[in-house]
Amino acid sequence: MNLDNLEVLSPAGSFESLRSAVDYGADAVYLGGQSFGMRAGPENFTYDSLKAAVELAHSKGVKIYLTCNTLPRNNEIPHFRQFMEEADDCGVDAVIVADLGLLSLVKEYCPEMEVHMSTQTGIVNYVTARELYNMGVKRVVVARELSLEEIAEIRAKTPADLEIEAFVHGAMCVSFSGRCLLSQYLVNRDANRGECAQPCRWSYSLMEETRKGEYYPIMEDSSGTYILNAKDLCMIEHLDKVANAGVTSLKIEGRAKSSYYVSVVTNAYRMAVDILKQDSDNYKLPQWVRDEVFKVSHRPYCTGFFFGHPKDCQYYESSGYIREYDVAAIVDECKDGYLYCTQRNKFLKGDEVEILAPGKIFDTLRVEELYNSDGEPIESANHAMMILPIQCEKEYPANSIIRIKK
After folding, report:
1. Superfamily classification of domain 325-405
2. What average pLDDT does range 235-245 have in this prediction?
3. What pLDDT sits at residue 216?
4. Is the CB of residue 30 less than 8 Å from the CB of residue 38?
């Protein structure tokens, strides 16, 4: 097991999320531009913001991978040269593609650009991985449907300098390797071009053909059932096994998720990897690190296909999230015994909050006094984005998170 280059790869759908990923310990960040990316919903990055993102990340030793992993149609191909030339000019470290045609164009337009082949490609065997390597691919993002044994065989039967990336955390699709037709079929939003409406999360019932309008729940529940709804993936307790199978990049799903999600999950996996590197033969997480991934919005967790057929990976009761914590505020600076913060959700004088700083166990603090930006005492922080000084003896870096249990 070679852990020297084991990478924590975090998502960013906005500049705020990018900053969170960088601050909280990502080795690399993947993000999308204004086109060719599999997430049309998030803010994503313009040319100027991408250039600024690369500059910020590189100043901290963090790499940037740009997604161009949609399955583009004919009318989109003429625009790809400009997309690649701008990416190259911004200095991104690699592009993630799913389409063989785009792979050939990347090699034509930017021959020195590192290419990662997306999970959308459906890479499930060593022959495919090896052939992609022969075509100039530096890294393969293996399909989520593989077990650890299958990944290990791909590792054993491919060139040593071909990197393997695998999703280890986040939402999962009911489709194979993320290629789903359901959204386009039902609401004309193509999941393979970044526009998924997530119909796999909807509730469904049966209707018998000759009894129009009479609906029958698929399970004995008046609300029907969520037959297509997958649990979320979480492998934080098994990173030793993932690394031992030959995975070099641990990918966190979530370009459509909040910066809070990115901060907390990145921080947890950063600490988990550091613990693994300290003693790879006796990998065991402290309970508080494990608990961190439960303090973001999530569906019930499972281990996906890593240990074989995922018999318990569907969740039929609800498509909603488990959300037990809110972000109360974000720390802007510490000065003269006060945390100067920007409010994100309402909290009250007397509340007990947790403060999470990068790479640290969280601290608890009771808000004994609360003031507005004019220094006047208040009972409640109830205005969005208000500036708040909170008395605190300990100092925390900017972008530390103040959260409160709901």
Report:
1. Translation factors (2.40.30.10)
2. 97
3. 57
4. no
Q: What is the pTM of this model?
A: 0.88
What is the average per-residue pLDDT within 144-148? 93
pLDDT > 90? residue 106 = yes
Q: How many residues does the chain have?
A: 406
Q: What is the 3-state secondary structure (H, E, C) of 154-181?
A: HHHCCCCCCEEEEEEEECCCCCECCECC
Distance (Å, rounded) from C-alpha 122 to C-alpha 232?
Answer: 20
The Cα 84–Cα 139 span in angstroms is 18
Closest to 97 measured CA to CA, from 69, 125, 134, 132: 69
- The residue ranges of every structural domain in the chain are 7-175+229-302, 325-405
For the chain, report the end-to-end CA distance as a whole number of angstroms.
41
Name residue 381's beta-bridge partners. Answer: 347
Beta-strand pair 387-391/338-343: antiparallel
Structure-block tokens of residue 377: 């005492």
Q: What is the DSSP letter of 384?
A: T
Question: 7-175+229-302 belongs to which CATH class?
Answer: alpha beta
Exposure string for 294-333, b = 16+ CB within 10 A, e = fewer: ebbebbebbbbbbeeebeebbbeeebeeeeebebbbbbee
* Residue with the larger pLDDT of the pair 175 and 81: 81
Across the range 346-359, mean pLDDT stands at 95
More confident of the two residues 74 and 180: 74
Cα atoms found within 13 Å of the Cα of residue 311, Cβ hemisphere only: 2
pLDDT of residue 218: 56
Rounded average pLDDT over 103-127: 96
Amino acid at 166: A
State yes or no: pLDDT of 182 exceeds 70. Answer: no
